Amino acid sequence: MKVTFLGTGTAVDTQKAQSCVLVEDSARILIDIGCGAFRRLGDVGVRVEEIDAVLITHNHLDHNADLLPLLKARWLENAGKLEIYGPPGTKAFVESLLEAFPYLRQKLSFEVNEESSFEVCGMKVETIPTFHSIVSRAYVIDGALVVSGDTRAFPELFSIECDALIHELSLPSGQSDFHTTPENMKECLDKAKAERIFYTHMYPHAYAVKDDILAFLGFGEIAEDLMSFSI
Ligand SMILES: [Zn+2]
Ligand SMILES: [Zn+2]
Predict the structure, then answer these.
(1) How many angstroms is it from 11 CA to the middle of ligand 2?
(2) Residue 3, class by beta-carbon neighbours within 10 Å (0-12 exposed, 13-18 middle, 19+ buried)?
C-alpha cells in the first residue's frame, strides 16, 4: 500500500493544499479532498478517472471543497462510477452540490454511502467516530492505516495496532477546542501501537513551532504535501 499526502494544510493555508491523503493498493482512494487536492493529482500523475473512491471524514470545507471539481472533471472524462463515503449528512451534501449544477446528473456516475464499514475493490474500511465540532469519523484501511480526520486525540485510535497513523495536530500548546494540541497528543502517545505516526493539518501558528512540538512529543513525523511512504 502506497500512501501520499496530497494536502496537509488547513482552511487558512495558501501555501499547502487542504486535507487529502491518496491511498494506492488494489484501489485508488482519496481520504478527504480539500481545496487544492484536485490540483495535486497532477503532481503525482494520477488521472481523475483513476480514482475509485473518496472517503470524507467530515463535511467541513477544508475536507470536501474539491469534490465538486473532481465530479465535474470525471463528467467531462466519461469516467466510471465514483464511490463516495462519508458520515451522515454526506448524501445531503452531495445532493446540494448537484442542485446547484443539475446538468452534471446527466452522465455522472457516483454512489454516496454513509455506512460505517465497507469494502472498496477488496480493501476493507472501518470507521471510528471522532470528537470534532460536527459529526466526523476516522478511517481504518485494511487494518494497516489509520487516518484521524479532525478530532481531539483520544485513546481508541492510538490503541489500534497498525503500520501508520495519520493524525491531525492542528493547534500549538495551550489552545483547546475540537482539535488536537501537543499536550492532548502526548497523553495518547503513551498508548500508541502504530509503528509510525504522521502529524498533519497543522494551523500556521502550530506549524511555525513544529520543531518545538516534535521535541516535546519525542515521537512522530510531520507530514508535508507530496510526501509518501509505503506499508
Ligand atoms: Zn473540521
Ligand atoms: Zn479541518
Answers:
(1) 7
(2) buried
pLDDT tens, position by position, 50-105: 999 999 999 999 999 999 999 999 999 999 999 999 999 999 999 999 999 999 98
- Point out the residues that are catalytic: 62
Q: Which residues contact 79 (CB under 8 A, 6 or more apart)?
A: 48, 49, 73, 109
Distance 78 CA to ligand 2 centre (A): 31
- Residue-range definition of the domain harbouring residue 190: 2-230
Distance from Cα 176 to the centre of ligand 1, integer Å? 14
Cell numbers found for residue 191: 498508548
Q: For residue 210, what is the domain's CATH number?
A: 3.60.15.10
Number of domains in the chain: 1
